[in-house]
């Protein structure tokens, strides 16, 4: 059992201080929590906090509002649900205003009912208003209404902000760089998720349903404290692996097929995003092994190249060359090798990106471009975390290749942190060599 180290109130306070440092004098920033979403009559989807709101507060209740006022003395206001005995008996405990101040470090805490009057007052006289524009339609409407109220009092001296600024670039850039404490959580959720992939390999058997393996994965996440999956698990037997976002997970596992599983838990809000592909009966066929080893070679080469200064363009070139050459050697791509490499011909079978940023969101925020000219991909820096996930997908219907390749879909995905020295692979316990996978499955 993993002993979890989670973030403290101080981690969240430091983030707010860092954001304050980027705000101009006499400005105000407003961030909204998510609302609960109805699933069907009288039932809600499990609540997932807005990740930006969570990043700045650690506060996990719906409907709340964070207001950061930058003036001579910076101050943070939280508006949240009131304590209410009856509501709490039915729906669960509420933090309330007193605990919000004492346990979460806000300077002031008010009820949701106070928002309507207080926000125009807080906004009045500020030079700039920061919020996540277009991210939350009800916040956009609220902001418009607050501004209207401030402007309505202009003859009595009110002054609305002249500048409305999208806070997204500031937040995205903060979230892109993980602190040591965030990396500790991401290591933990990777170990939990890697254990779930191991368990899936152990429990896999011809004749079981994909959803039974999904259940093993969710069980392993939850019993280690990652109660929820970071995204819907993909458990795709045989040709289903060639549907990139396959989540039906309803078919029977067949002999001599591969099983592609893309699944990661969420711990303290942070996602793991791991893919493994393995033979359902425990032994790769020669054709499966050839494709698998090629994808693995390209993945390892990309991971080995990661260090500060490198970027996704560099990795794409590297992986493109390896996959194209390998597919040519296997006779799957035909023609002139130099030309095939030049036109990155592997893209016929490697149909998605090589990776993405990872953090509170599985497809995490952060600009991929080096600058506003948007002509060059951004160089990796210490503290960034990304996935590396090459794949080869040959649909069962592809008659341009020999029949032995058809229906093979392979993706291998690890989570990598950039370090001063190069990189750290956070995905440490999900077997991925042919030998390790076959040995584990032979024992179970
Ligand atoms: N699990 C989604 C992805 O790999 O991007
Ligand atoms: Mn991914
Ligand atoms: Mn994935």
CATH class of the largest domain, named Alpha Beta
Number of helices: 13
Spatial order of the strands forming the largest sheet: 6-5-4-1-7-8
Query: Beta-strand percentage?
Result: 15-25%
Helix content: 25-40%
Question: Uncertain runs with pLDDT below 50, 5 residues or more?
Answer: none
**Overall average pLDDT:** 97
CATH architecture of the largest domain: Alpha-Beta Complex
**N-C termini distance:** 21 Å
Main beta-sheet strand count, sense and barrel state: 6 strands, mixed
Number of domains: 2
Bound molecules: glycine, manganese (II) ion
CATH evolutionary superfamily of the largest domain = Creatinase/methionine aminopeptidase superfamily
**Radius of gyration of CA atoms, rounded to a whole number:** 25 Å
